[in-house]
Predict the structure.
Amino acid sequence: MSAHPVINSLASVLSEAHILTESKRTEHYRSGWRSGRGEALAVVFPQTLLQLWEILEICVEHNCIIIMQAAKTGLTEGSTPSGQDYDRDIVIINTLAMNELVLLGNGEQILSFPGTTLHQLESSLKPLGRAPHSVIGSSCLGASVVGGVANNSGGALVKRGPAYTELALFARVTKEGKLELVNHLDIPLGESPREILHNLQHGQFDKNITPTARKASASDYEARLRDVDANTPSRFNADTSRLFEASGCAGKLAVFAVRLDTFAIAKQEKTYYIGTNNPDVLTALRRHILSTFKYLPEVGEYMHRDIFDIARDYGKDTFLSVKHLGTQRLPKLFALKGRIDALLNKQSWLPKYLSDRVMQGIARCFPAHLPERLNAYRDLYEHHLILKMSDNGIAEADAYLAEFFAQNHQRGDYFSCTAEEAASAYLNRFAAAGAAIRYQLLNQRHVGDIVALDIALKRNDIQWVESLPDSISQQIDKALYYGHFFCHVFHQDYVLKKGADAKAVKAAMLTLLDSREAKYPAEHNVGHLYKAEDGLAAFYRELDPTNTFNPGVGKLDKHKRQCGCC
């Protein structure tokens, strides 16, 4: 197959169809979702856990860099190479083919293989009346379960907190340079790596839930969220209390499986749409609900009027696709779109981002898609909150909101959504991030780059609406704010004016956030775009003392380390 010894060794494990080496064929896997790319000796697609182990053995033996990759939905270049300054050959291991899912007990817990997707998990649990940590609509389409754990991702579900578990099966390289398999699933699977992986792959183990002292979710998050006077954020990527082996590892381990809690689906849900021109109204709502309600919300999503407009106008095709096609087909369609874009963008005679232009044009042919009351609130109010309560929490919210707005009727209003209005509100919010990118792509003649931040404010921060100095605001075409309001986690996308220096603007933004004691990133992880805080950097070095896995993440070194102390 090749004269290269690594490729020859990989060919002894995988078929030719599961090893890519040509630059054109590997480009998609070497390129980040929004930005970043690098070179790779090969991209490989193991079909079984044993093949994954054997590939790791080959890479370690030949002193290769290993980059673990699943759905590649991350926004900070965390699962692709970045730049050309690596000191060893890179092998990208794509894990999506290993997508088995094992239900434990009656579905109260699950075992996820490295390629299992969130959609697959949600679909498997729904008939059992259970739900995963995140659901489609609260995080990326096509995202993998293990990817969420590895990046302690959050989402729109208020009570769940970051994806977290202390129960995992993973491979690591020791400071002596030896590959070892660690079984911390608290499920007996055997002794040797091959025995463990064979038994797991073939389901040869007890699927009852065995008692364990290890956590399979962030079970303390509700109590943390209720402490509205705390001087720290509720969740953020560098929180050392949420870093444990696979949880937060950012690809510094090769994760074979994770064991996670699932959650009972609510029997009844009700959505409220709240509008105001005074952010203090939403502050009062948040603090009262978190500190006094017996039952916390399921969802509490914030949108500013400007991102409402962008999502409505530039996310219409996403809205209609999810509404009419469902979520099952969309991950493959988005992956296909990415490959088509990579091909078409190389043709100089074609306009850039042709697929986006075509989809935008088609969407405009459809009639207005948002319900009348949502559009009316858009005209009336600058700040919007989508609040979902469930079961016993519904009566609690009904009584409080009626009383609150009777006393504050001049400061805002709310309505109880119909099923169609609720679905439309969530879909418009879900389309926001992609819509911001679409706006920037299709208006590149008139606007500059986009600076996308996700930040965590302190739980006691009253001034959550950002006030930018003129030196920054004068360089911005659109400042777009949306996020997970009760968690005080916000996504802030800034489309810059033509000619603005994106790096300088971002640096100024981060300095401003530092002065507010905010944490960033909140849930997209550092990738290659953010510097890891000291605690996070120490965690990475502890997991991967030789810098074999995903070097350079968190803006750390890319060179090989000979021991864990350097």
